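For the sake of transparency, this paper describes our internal protein records without simplification. An entry from our holdings is shown next, in its original layout:
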Amino acid sequence: MRKKSLWEILVPNYDNSGNKYSLDYHHQWDNKVRVITGGLTILKTAKGQWVNPEGRLFAEEMIPVRVLCYKNDISNIIDITLEHYNQEAVLAYEISCNVLLKYAKKSNT
């Protein structure tokens, strides 16, 4: 049986020219991800640094976003993120596969 995991993906807050993405542009990405996962949790920005294969240092402000989905779904979300934000690389990592999600019981009143 396939099991969903809680994943975190790092979304850029600025483009490669240093221009901040608009809130509307982020909302477009949010909508694409919600279609796949049904929801997402957007955390406060964090500062990150990484070196690409050519040795170039990137210091970026990132937005950690958490989603509950299958492994193939997060792979699809990474592809969407690469294209939407025109990124060279996107990092996502599994936080846990031990996730409980409960829905309230609906009353007939």
About this structure: Strands lie at 5-12, 41-42, 46-51, 57-69, 92-96. Residues 5 and 98 are 7 Å apart (CA to CA). The chain has one domain: 5-96. The mean pLDDT is 94.
